[in-house]
Design a protein that fits this description.
Elements (H helix, E strand, L loop, with lengths): L1 E9 L2 H10 L3 E13 L5 E7 L5 E6 L7 E9 H8 L6 E14 L2 E8 L3 E10 L5 H14 L4 E4 L4 H6 L6 H4 L6
Antiparallel strand pairs: 1-5, 1-8, 1-9, 2-3, 2-6, 3-4, 4-5, 6-7, 7-8
């Protein structure tokens, strides 16, 4: 499966929620999630534990860049993950804890994330299918970014895991948008 993703800082959570609902998005729920990332030879693997939901393992490949990016992903159940990755525990890299408000707007998942130790973010995931092209998803995200511009902060070019794991010596400009200190 694949989607087109975009992530940025969020300046006003309440206003973002209001705008998204006014656009006709459906509030799916508020989720407490813990994502445990593992060290794997290529791609990224995380175990997602969501309160009240079955554990999922998500393996994905996605470039780190500020603009919307294509993510190729596969979701595994716990038994499927053991079959695919083995029963020996994988080395843990980093753990991300967040509260996620999940909204659906057509084929776009809108996440309003409050990430422990990092702050508040907005993420779009537009599902690419046979009927919905990458170009169409790009157009959707451009329109949503324009509509939500008053509440959006700097774009984020990497995952929350990268932000949590980075050394203090790393240049923030590499992870966040230009002009960030």
């Amino acid at each position: 499966m694949q989607n087109l993703e975009f992530k940025c800082e969020l300046r006003d959570l309440a206003l973002a929620r209001s705008i998204i609902l006014r656009l006709g998005a459906v509030h799916v729920g508020t989720l407490e999630q813990t994502d445990t990332y593992y060290r794997v030879p290529s791609g990224r693997l995380k175990k997602r534990e969501t309160v009240g939901e079955p554990t999922e393992y998500i393996f994905y490949n996605r470039p780190d860049r500020l603009n919307p990016k294509i993510s190729q992903f596969t979701i595994f159940s716990e038994p499927q993950a053991v079959e695919r990755f083995g029963s020996t525990p994988l080395p843990t890299w980093v753990v991300v804890r967040k509260v996620r408000e999940l909204f659906l707007l057509g084929n776009v998942r809108v996440h309003l994330d409050q990430v422990s130790k990092l702050g508040t973010f907005l993420e779009f995931e537009a599902m690419v299918t046979n009927a919905v092209t990458v170009e169409h998803c790009q157009k959707q995200l451009t329109e949503l970014r324009g509509t939500l511009a008053p509440v959006l902060g700097e774009p984020i070019g990497c995952g929350y895991s990268d932000l949590l794991a980075k050394d203090e010596d790393d240049q923030p400009q590499k992870l966040l948008g230009p002009g960030r200190a």
